[in-house]
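Students often ask why we bother predicting the structure of a whole assembly rather than each chain alone. The short answer is interfaces. A chain on its own may look different once its partners are present, and contacts between molecules only exist in the joint model. In this exercise we take two input lines together and write out one structure for the complete complex. Read the inputs first and try to guess which parts will touch.
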Amino acid sequence: MSYQPGKMGVAAGTAIVFTTTFTSFFLSVWSVFTDQAATAAWLVPSINAVCFLSLFWIVLYVMQRVPGDLYEVAERLLGKTGARLITLYFITTFFIDAVLTLRQFAENTLLTAIPSLDISLVAGWYVLIASFYVYLGIEPIARAAYIVLPVGLTALTLLLLGLYTKFHLYNLRPWLGDGLGVLLKSGVPSSGFYLHTFILAILAPAFQNLRTIRTAALLGIGLTTIFRTLTLIMYMGIFSVEVGREKVLPFYEMARLIYLSRYLQRVEAFYIILWVILGLATIAIDLYMANYLLTRLFNLQSMRPLILPLAIIAAQLALIPADIATAIELNVKADTIYFAAGVLVVPVVLLMANLIKGKRKAKSCATN
Amino acid sequence: MEGLANSLTKIISSLKNLLIYEPPSIPTPFVLEEKQSENESEKPAESSALTESADELNQLLRFAQHLEATIEQAKSAISQEPTPDKIDSILQQIKVLEAQKAELSPILLAYNSGENTESRNISASLEENSLIIKKIFQVSDNEDIIIRDFFIPTNPPRKAMLVFTQGLVDNKDITSSILMPLFAVKELSGDILEFLITKHLSSNQAKQVKDFQAIVKGINGGDTALFVDGANGAILLFTKGFEHRAIGRPQLEQTIRGSQSAFTETLRTNITLVRLTLRSPDLVTKMITLGKRSRIDCAVMYLQSVANPDLVAEVKRRLSNISTDNITAGMLEQFIEDHPGIPFPQILSTERPDRVSSHLSEGRIAVLVDGDPFALVVPISLFTLFGSPEDFALKLPSGTFMRALRYLSAFVAVILPAFYLAITYYHQEAVPTDLILAIAGARERIPFPAIAEVLFIEVSFEFIREAGTRIPGLLGQTLGIVGGIILGQAVVAASLISPVTVVVVAITAIASFSIPDFRMGMAVRQIRFLFIIAGATLGLIGVASGLFVVLGVLSSMKSFGVPYLSPIAPKTTPGLDTMVRGPVYRQEQRPDELNTQDQSRQPPISRKWEKQRTEGGNVTDELSTR
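Now the answer. The structure tokens for the assembled complex follow.
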């Protein structure tokens, strides 16, 4: 089978999780959080992390008792049909994420870098590069993401430090925003943003053991949460809620504000390199996972023939939303409804199936 | 009228001669025509059935002639009074004929005729051996092969023959250690060859061989083959004495500190140089022959107790399974590396023995090819190619600083022109206003777009660089300097290129020369053009995409099973020798990615003198006094 994911460790797993969960922060999700949770939006990432990790730990608990990757675990506990449904669900989530990320990054490119370019060319370019990476496999993607990780974190830290002069702490008052209820209402569904962490469970054979997966998940989500929180604090401290909720490209707007001297200003152009690379990595990972799961689902010998057709379909679907606002809306709905459903439902279903099967086994042993 | 017609004709012909150009007559140039025959797998005539039968018959005929001659001699000896000498001579001839008779059974004759000549065993008949040698080495056309026939002065005299390649042997050695001892031999007994080796031949290396394959290999390598009539074998004697270049200084890997000796074209000398810098009994040298026609020797060297056995087996497997006519070290790289189509080198090529030794001690494997002054070291990572031989001769801050400089220079060499184009075309706001105004002012009178300027000056520098390499001696260096200066000055003065572009490209060129490995520099120069096009087309998006693609290619590459970007990706135990050159006394582990048999290189405390105290002239160990 040519779609074996190879071997990866904590570093690669952390890079995959961080890349896929943080990249959305180069898009418009900050504005959405700010709009939903007001001044308490900086707490939303933490709520997401707690919510998600507690559910992901359930999955790992089940995988501890039932060996194999997520597909095999689901097959053992829910039967072939159940496993296929779950696989189909994940295929659609990764594919939808690839499409929407592609569209939003293409729009970003036109808005911030090359306005005169045609969006279909940009989308085609991005999907071509992502397909190249899918062809290479998940190991090179993870390694590339791991190499970019410290550079990205350093660049983000410098960005945050460079804006300290514009930060006003009192823009964050009231500290709990519109209340705990609103905060939880915003935070719990948006834990769908962390859905990509399930990649570690799907590619479990590539990792040495469950401890590696657990550590990678913790580190990846931890890094994402810290940087999301810090950037949201900075964002609201600079723009305040009223202005912040209206920005289409919050990251770009923040980068534009950096002014350290005559010679160190308007550095948003240099951050293009960072978000393009992370965006391409995310699209590549999404397309790879969709390919991988499709190959698994239909028991195909190789995933390579699927790469180009899926890429072309993704590029075509990405051009369907009429404008960027529609794409952002679809992205938010996908994350908070469709992805969140998977995050909440899949672990619970697996746990229940495991418990029921465990009871049945105990009963049959007792009868014998 | 006739006169007028004649005049007109003359005028016309003289005009014709004047106006129509006739090229001078020169011989037609040689063109290697394609073969007429479509069947490329036709076997040579040697292997045809008729030729085989002819060979068999000729051999039988020669035996019959010798037998007849011996019988005639015996008859005349019997008819006259035979002297003991004559009897001994006839008996010796009979013994030779008896030995030859065993080779003349029909099955063996047929087998030998059908076989490749080189695979045959050595005959007891000197004449047969002589014929075979002449056939193998094309002696009728090949004047390098010398066949020296002589008689060993036993009673009766025994015919013998020396075969060697002129120019590869030490003639004095042949005379003093082979011919002179043989001319002093009075009798031969028992196993003739064993007798000569143990009792008469003073050559320091001598071995018996039974087949022509070993003979051919030995003669081509500078040995001398001794054939004796009646012995179904031969002796190969060490007489190598060919001219070779003395050990000189490295040409491409010059250092300020560190060893100043470099490899030469002689394999044995190179192996010796490595052994002198790594005097370990564990250091193993395995010889493999490469190339069907070139038959070049290549040595695989490794530390047996350190190198991973799977890696050793893989290297040997790849070398042994190369099928080609001719091969050199540069070609060998492409035959054995994992990704020959990718410009980034996956094998380290070095002319320094000290560098080879340090890599061998880390657990890598060295391949040395006869006739090439470069050793190949496998496996490597990208970071190996940025190491300089004097990294470890400098202290920690200097070594780390130099290494950081090299990484930065490689990055600049790839990115700078593309970055310049991206900024000037699409992201002018990123540059301070004063600077962008200066750039715009400098480019005001230039008629070409920025990308045309950059490509023009880049290609010109490549021309100058290549021309400087091809022109020998000082003229090449002068051409590079003068050409670069004059060209740069002239194009700026003519307002064809802006000064900013010249500065950018000049910095890029200098940065690319800071890369220690020549082939890595070549790869960087090649991908720079792709980045220039990407930067001009898509701005920083193109630059970022290019970086991402290059990163992907590097991440997917392997060098003999070791990921190209290790120890960073995949992350392995750091050895304080990747980005930062750590202290030499802290490098306790061998590179983790090599999976060596013995991971430990030195104990945690290698500067043991630090733990010792001197008390009144006596050295005491601090630990033992507690």
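Check your guess against this: DSSP finds 13 helices and no strands in chain A.
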